[in-house]
Amino acid sequence: MNSSIPIYYHPKILHTYVLLPQRTHMEKRILQLKDEVLLQHPYLIVLAVILSFIIMDPLQLSPVGGHDFRPVKNDIASYQKVMESWPRDNRSRLGLGNLEFKDEIFGPESLEFDIWGRGPYAGLADGRIVRWIGEDAGWETFALVTSNWTEKLCSKGVDSTTHKQWKVESRCGRPLGLRFDRKSGDLYIADSYYGLLVVGPEGGLATPLATHVDGKPILFANDLDIHDNGSIFFTDTSKKYNRVDHFFIMLEGEATGRLLRYDPPTRTTHVVLEGLAFPNGVQLSKDQSFLLFTETTNCRIIKYFLEGSDKGTIEIIADLPGFPDNIRLNEKGQFWVAIDCCRTKAQEFLIHNPWFRSIYFRLPIPMSYLARLVGMRMYSMVSLLSDNGDILEVLEDKKGVVMKLVSEVKEANGKLWIGTVAHNHIATLPYPLQVH
Predict the structure, then answer these.
(1) CA atoms within a 13 Å half-sphere pointing along the CA-CB vector of 149
(2) Other C-beta atoms within 10 Å of 10: how many?
């Protein structure tokens, strides 16, 4: 080095050079303390390993094991706000209903009567659509949704609504929504695996109408209604999960569901709305100027305008205390909604915190126990709403006397006919009620 070259010492630079060794020493001390803590408390290492193991779930021991489980936050109304304004049925009047056809009919989600008043008709868990033809003859098989159906493969009796049916459900079919065309007498069917189908007034093997949209399969057709112009509106609940895995749609909160429309003259299917969180029941208004559909995950009812200045837009008309299924019109133009009740504060926390859901449902604990831990003890509620979402009637079955899970309420022949996807019977309740 040439000693004649002057050396300048900037105060800030000099300060940095002086502090650098001290900072390095401090960092070393911090690392040393961390090591000491871990050595003194090895359970922290064990806890970290256990948490990592749970989150990774390599043995698929959790309820969501084997699924690409990616929870998201949902757009759901405040639990407190909904429960404060929702009327309750303190007499639990729905529990006064009668059990009909016990262990004769399996998972009758949707109920219908034909244009001649015959019925009820019901779609069953074993893949059949059946019809009641009287006390002497009982139930008869009216229609099938697939030629794959055989009694040996599909008919499991009272076990049809349990997991024993799930392995063959996609082959046997699972008819959910049923509607009669009041002009032709044809029965239209939304089957969760075979899409939208139709069968004539005499029954038989149904004909597929819509199995794909935009070149991709309809994975979970759920419910439908028929417009006077012949168009059929129906819901496709998810593009990710099928019916057997329907619970994961709610746990994950995924919103890939759609409202679809099938146009018979052109035999084409169109997407009306998409990005829906478990779209389920669908019902046209009496004047057919709008339709209502339920969004199960978000516990609400949405109105879709078909006419007027608001045509093509949507409006949330009711936030519900529980998880809605089908929705049906009565003769007055009012809407019966089947609701599996009720939401809890803990469940709302899970909805708003998907990161916690991701950990919670990866615990190696059966789903039934995890549900109880967050206060979910399901029972049935049905509600009658106006076309603006005003609450006209609430009926509850808090003890699950008639049904713990309810799928549909149809008002006909002076009764409420109540279907369920989970039980082996139908419930009826005289209506209007004469309870004092």
Answers:
(1) 23
(2) 8
Residue 141 lies in a domain: yes
The Cα 63–Cα 251 span in angstroms is: 10
> Of all residues in the chain, what percent carry a pLDDT higher than 90?
71
Domain contains 19: no
What 3-state DSSP class applies to 294?
strand
Res 22: pLDDT: 52
Residue 173 inside a domain? The answer is: yes
In a domain? residue 425: yes
Give burial (CB, 10 Å; 0-12/13-18/19+) of 353.
Answer: middle
CATH number of the domain encompassing residue 174? 2.120.10.30
Please indicate, yes or no, whether the overall pTM of this predicted structure exceeds 0.90.
Answer: no
Under a CB-based contact definition with an 8 Å cutoff, are residues 101 and 110 in contact? no
CA distance 271 to 278: 15
Residue 16 belongs to what H/E stretch?
helix 11-40
CA 154 from chain center: how many Å?
24
